[in-house]
Amino acid sequence: MIGRVAGRIVYKADDHVLIDTGGVGYVVFCSDRVLAGLGAPGEATALFTDLMVREDLMQLFGFPTLVEKEWFRLLLSVQGVGAKASLAILGALGPDGVSRAIALGDWTAIKAARGIGPKTAQRVVNELKDRAPAIMAMGAGPMAVPPPVAATGTEPASTAPAAPRSAATPSGGAAQSEALSALTNLGYGPGEAAGAVAQAAGDAPDADTAGLIRAALKLLAPPA
């Protein structure tokens, strides 16, 4: 399994980038959003990768964070969602946008991705609503972003990515803390996030992290 590619950009195409890692070039497929965020040819870059192997094809898919990579893998578990569709969803919404859409049951946001129809969008929301909060919680803490390679083409010794947070679900105060971190990671202000989590915890004192995140996001959603 190739989990990370670091090197210098040779060229960028419409749907992939070629990265030279010291004499070996890797073709890495990325979403439009990720490709737009990469540097120009000749610049250093690094991506977390997921290798897809089929009988007649091997493809690498690249992501700037481990959280986005895990979203890609989770989206692939939905019936009718392949690699192209998964990248389209992430490209249109980003990992934070996918988090919000699934937590709020907003399948119309998923449908906005290129090539995604209403039935597929509804399946994404319905099939992932109970599994998505584990990845949201991953993004609650500091998540390592692949650093660029050094000018010499070698990687600094301290660039190993941080291990993902445990997917174990905390309870009580720990669940509230995890939910609060997840919401602030999604861009909500500390005050509004704390208020929503507190209200959600008051309504359901025994709720786990996933339940608190869903309930708090519904409270924070603008009125229809």
From TrEMBL:
One of its GO terms (cellular component) is Holliday junction resolvase complex. Keywords: ATP-binding, Cytoplasm, DNA damage, DNA recombination, DNA repair, DNA-binding, Helicase, Hydrolase, Nucleotide-binding. The keyword Cytoplasm applies. Residues 150-175 have a biased composition (Low complexity). It is found in: Cytoplasm. Residues 73-92, 108-127 form the Helix-hairpin-helix DNA-binding motif class domain. GO terms for biological process: DNA recombination; DNA repair. Pfam families: HHH_5, RuvA_C, RuvA_N. Has three domains with a flexible linker between the domains II and III and assumes an 'L' shape. Domain III is highly mobile and contacts RuvB. This is Holliday junction branch migration complex subunit RuvA.
